[in-house]
Design a protein that fits this description.
The complex is a heterodimer. Chain A is an alpha+beta fold. In chain A, 29% of the residues lie in helices and 30% in strands. Chain A starts with a helix and ends in a 5-residue tail after the last helix. Chain B is elongated.
Chain lengths: 347, 153
Amino acid sequence: MAAEQAAVTDSGRARSFFERAWDAGEAAPCAETYRIMGRGVRIRSAENFGFVRRALAHLRTEPGAAPQLDIRSGDHRSLVLPDSPWRPEDFGVRGEIRGGNDERFAAAYDHAGSSLSMLDRETGRAIFWTRHAEALPQAERGAPFKTIFHWWAEASGCLLLHAAAVGDGRGAVLLVGKGGSGKSTTAFSCAAAGLNYLGDDYCAAGGEGAPCVFSLYGTGKLTADSAWHFPPAATACSDRRAGEEKTIFYLHEIYPGLAVGCLPLSAILVPRFLPAATTTNLHPVPSSEAFKALAPSTISQLPGAGAATFRSLGRLVAEVPAFELLLARDFADMGGIIRRFLQGRLP
Amino acid sequence: MCCQPAQAASIYGAMVRYRINSPHVVCQIFDTETVAVNMESGCYYSVEGAGSGILRCVESSCTHGEILAAVAPGDDAAAASVEAFLREALAEGLIVGEECTTVPGVEASPADAPPTKPWVLPRLQKFTDMRELLLLDPIHELDQAGWPQSKQP
């Protein structure tokens, strides 16, 4: 009985807090509409949230019907957050907030970015607050609201993935693996070769019937050594702050027209650098290889992700063939290799 | 059915019943390999050979004796490798053993566990490269409004 009362209290506390925070975000001056995962999303944000509008620019649409997800966002100047209703011990190791999550509400606090994300699944409303927008780490500036998109995706049968994705009219391939495995370099190479671009670090997959890959962000991150290989990036307006190893590029600005919102999923590729190899190549691998490269790194970055996400990732991986993409030192022809693969001419 | 956490000395008793250490541990079984993640330790694992069959039995809440009967019937060497695998899985916190003090009313069936033929040694490979991502230390210092804040702005 005590546990039931505590759950009711927690639920009421979360709801009360959410409503007050939602009202506090009403004054944000910028409102844009996007088509994300095939559905309408409205984002109201402060003027210093330009990184959001830029990362999602390729998905922007004209305002239409009522959005299915409505996000209000700001920092301490534009969204005055009510006092926390939770205790210090309620803030968990992966951002989960004990007492802030139930069937209706999802809540997480990102310690690295000092930011709160919260979703009301019942009404399709969400809030994102950070202490200082200017202090947000690169991971959040390059992939804003990914925790909210993760919850929203799962509520509608999709999955947010730690993966890059590129493709053409035939379909898309996911590039999976932890940081440094070659996802971004391959994605940039494919865009430079004229292939469509859906993301270099995060995207979503799902939908009814055969799975589709959905673009979330038009951003891509490269180290200075890698960026040197892409001349258009050298002159592009990018985002890098002191102490950050990588630079955020906006691929829809560098390669206009190549960023697309959705393509059918054809295969999953696990990139691996082979410095001694002279040509990039690929060969089939068991689904479990793709799963190992995708699942642990995905669920480790998503608050609340656990058994259900793990199993959904397993089902997704089992639906399409998996290949290891062996990357040569000279990756000039990576785009050509992926194009030939999509044409069915490889391996 | 009444079960209690098994003591180390009696972990191999025939009436020790195993289960996956959920919700901390999640598993995904593929044709030739099982992938498991321990969300508490931040480690993930690749299970190959007869290990997948053993974990299928564990998912069915089989007893120690039932697992040996299903995976290594009548083979002492195979039984020893199964026990070594179970010991390692217990040490990694992937599975939990509970000693049953009363006879179960309904025996769990290992029927779902496909026989592994030809016999391939169960193998548990551990990966720790995601530990830092899985186990970020929270910062418990709060501001006046009760929100966590970094000690170094």
